[in-house]
Write a structure and sequence with these properties.
The complex is a heterotrimer. Chain A is an alpha+beta fold. Chain A has helices at about 1-30, 35-60, 70-75, 80-85, 90-115, 120-145, 165-195, 200-235, 245-270, 270-295, 310-330, 345-380, 390-405, 420-445, 450-475, 480-490, 495-515, 625-645; strands at about 385, 520-525, 530-535, 535-550, 555-565, 570, 575-580, 585, 590, 595-605, 615-625. Among the domains of chain A are: about 1-165, no CATH class; about 520-625, Tick-borne Encephalitis virus Glycoprotein, domain 1 (Sandwich). Chain A is about 60% helix and about 10% strand. In chain A, strands 3, 4, 5, 6, 7 and 8 form a 6-stranded antiparallel sheet that branches. In chain A, strands 2-11-10-9 form a 4-stranded antiparallel sheet, covered by helices on one side. The longest helix of chain A has about 35 residues, at about 200-235. Chain A is globular. By secondary structure, chain B is α+β, with helices and mostly antiparallel strands. Chain B folds into 2 domains: about 1-35; about 35-120, Nucleic acid-binding proteins (OB fold (Dihydrolipoamide Acetyltransferase, E2P)), CATH 2.40.50.140. Chain B has 3 helices and 8 strands; from the N terminus they run αβαβββββββα. In chain B, a hairpin with a 2-residue loop joins β3 and β4. Chain B is elongated. A 5-stranded mixed sheet of chain C has the order 3-2-1-5-6. By secondary structure, chain C is an alpha/beta fold. Chain C folds into 2 domains: about 1-30; about 65-180, Glutaredoxin. The radius of gyration of chain C is 20 Å and the shape is elongated. Classes of the chains: A alpha+beta, B alpha+beta, C alpha/beta. Chains in contact: A-B, A-C, B-C. β8 of chain B pairs parallel with β4 (about 140-145) of chain C.
Amino acid sequence: MIPEIGLFVLFLALIIAAIQAVVPMVGAVRQDVYLMALGNRLAVIQFFLVTISFTSLIYAFVISDFSLLIVYNNSHSLKPLLYKISGVWGNHEGSMLLWVLILSMFGAALAIWGKNISPTLKARVLSVQSMIGVAFLAFILFTSNPFLRLNPVPSDGRGLNPVLQDPGLAFHPPLLYLGYVGYSMAFSFAVAALIEGKIDDKWGRWVRPWALAAWVFLTAGIALGSWWAYYELGWGGWWFWDPVENASFIPWLLGTALLHSSVVVEKREGFKNWTVLLAILTFSMSLLGTFLVRSGILTSVHTFATDPERGLFILLILFVTIGGALGLFAIRAPIIKNNFKFAPVSRESALLYNNLFLTIGCAIVLLGTLYPLFLEFASNGESKVSIGPPYFNITFLPIMIPLVAAIAVGPMLSWKRGVIGALYVKLLFAAGSCLITIFIVLILVPEGPTLAACSMGLAAWIAAGCLIEWASRIRLFNSKSITNTGRLIKSSKSANGMTLAHLGIAILIVGITGASAWQKEITTSMAIGETIKVNDYSLTLKKVQIGKGPNYNLERGTFSLIKSNNSAIIMHPERRYFPVARQATTEAAIKTTLLADFYLVIGESRDTIDNKNEWTVRFYINPMMFWLWLGVATMVLGGLLSLSDRRRGISIPVRKKA
Amino acid sequence: MKRKHKRLLLVLVSLGLLGLGTAILLSAIEDNLVFFYTPSEIENKSIKNDQVFRIGGVVVNGTIKHSNSFSSFSLTDFRKTISVTFKGVLPDLFREGQGVIAEGSLKADGTFTATQVLAKHDETYMPKEVADKLKSSGLWKEKFSKNEYFN
Amino acid sequence: MKRFILIIPIIVFIIIIAVLSVMTLQTKEGRNPSIVPSALLGKEAPNIELPMLARNIPGGFKGSDLVGRVNIVNVFSSWCVPCLAEHPQISWLATNGFPIYAINHRDNVSDASNWLKKHGNPYFAVGFDPEGRASLEWGVGGVPETFIINASGIITYKHIGPITKEILKEKILPKLHEAKR
């Protein structure tokens, strides 16, 4: 009964979405206040309906209703409750419903909280948002119905894949989708503005919080996925330039550029066309990513098993939405007038520089991701290739360096015409920090690649630049009293958020450098009692226990890791074997300290020549790994801080003098 | 006049940089393409030793051997078979009969030294039309015994 | 000039969509995005011996048994839902004069027997392959899969996935007639 309700409300939602796609837009053209306001109500109703649908699906999973095909395929009575729930979106149909839920949620959020937005623009935005909703609701209802029934009902389900039962994996999709789908708002704002024929500083102010919110979610979602891959896959790595990873990174790069260029629209009414184009492209890349993962044309560990026919439907949606938006852009952009000038050295030029490098970086990753497909197409199936990390490391990383280096300088520059004189002293301090850091690193790690020291120096340059800019902004050394400073600190959450996020990048660079340049990996076989030496550490295999879990057999190693005369760290990597599924999983033992991660994997046992049991062991030392996660967390915190700024936030856009 | 020249110069320089950048990118791709071959194709293509590429195949029964930290097994595409050696921990899904991709290079003796081994998931196929038909088709009622199979 | 620049995004986009569409269509028609091979086309049916499933179910066969006429070999499991979905088509083929052998893949005796008893056994013979060893020889990557073997014992066609009514009409029957020549 309940699943049928779920299906029914979905149909209703489609109808509402169709109405919402048309009526407010008509209202905007006719300046009909009532019709425009109707858009708000429809948006809330639509969200409400989709929520009912999604809830009924969750309910079916929670009570293990195996009469639903989706529950049968993806769940099992023995699954813990948490994973029964996360099973809802661990498959194609359920995840599409989640997608649509978030889409309608953002629409409703705008309807409720976008109070000071011009009603005409708001009506148009809700209209466009709903058009996307219509497309995807139709997609679900006609090709990916989650509420299909099975009759008679099987007594249990098939979804007990051990790899999927993991907290990181459970929450990675929702966060990621909040990011992906969040950019639909920026897209809708852009298309609405093009239809209206007007882009001004107010538009910039209104669109920015949505772009920022999506950015925060996307950053967090990517980081969570990366962290999951790190501790679960057993390879000691956290980024593999897998096509599906790239599919999330590409919109992130564009979204970051969007964040920066929308500032120029807001402050100086510049870069209008470019910002609108960016908003369209960011969401387009989200959609493209959605397509790549589900169409079946790529294989990767991440792809959903789904069929190409659905892929064609998504391509059609892409063609209409993105093609329509880009076509609209080509036609309407000339109407948007830019009348703004800026000096070669100024905040504007710094932001232009930022956008340039982010766009180039994005193009590089996009090329690397699509090239194998295009080559196979061009060679008519003859050439099958993959493009691995080496390509990306050679091309992408060098582009990032000038980009991040600018972080120290950009925020210090003033609008329209940067005053260079004052900068020299500040940058001198930053440069000094950089050189000192390089020097210290070279001393502490003499054997390490010099590039690593330079990279650390780069991080120091960025961090110093951020802190100096912040100090001068809150007049840390100028203030007549403490209370003044306190007030200044509290006053601009938006700017402080920026500083925090930029600092996060510096911390992230420290993490990436350490974990890549100074990583130590040993693969060897060890017998009980054997000790191997890695750097200053001794790793000893104490014992291996055989045991049993609920549905698996396990081999559990006990290792002790000792540095010089310090106390021993005990680590317990496991290898689990699920006899019925004939599948094994590795549970790495990870010990995290401030300066390094110790990562230990145990493989199968094997008999050696003299009949002593030995196990394959893989041991990594990942220096500064914690800083990597700390860096991203800081970036997310910075974004959240910025979002909380009520003057720039969603509720009260106030016109500020430029 | 001057402004026109300035603009023209800007355009030319931009195009030049764009061209240069694209050339660098494409050459980076060329250098780092990793080709896929099946064991049969290896004979036909002239592959230099030390050239990194990927082979795909199915692990042949009874060929998995471990010694020290090395593993060896045979991969087949049902026409030709090739021996593979790999140092390290094999991926979770690795077993006889599994579809597997190995990345590495050929040794002079014709065996393949893998630096990376990836295993494929088992598949059951469920296209949309089938799912629709299941609405009215029958399914069995027997309880799943201890021999349940997982996704 | 400005107009030209403005059109670039949509042109690039159309090109990308066009290529992706073609690739998707090809995947639909059988392009395998993974390099792992899945066909033994043109080769002799493997001669690995498949034991009987149970005493009351005719079965057990090997590749050489398939010589002499056009045969179909269908790989199924009792736990495989799409296998059940294609069962009507398989039964139709059996009643219309096409002999079908089965490889019962990674299953157990009681489940498989009950499945056949409940849904009908259209198979000329059922070979029992609990460990998947024979499936390996046959190049089976998943269930269901269906092979067409001609009178000389050569595999002429392999279908991956369940056989719907459309696929039966548009692919299987033509391939069967082809094999008869």
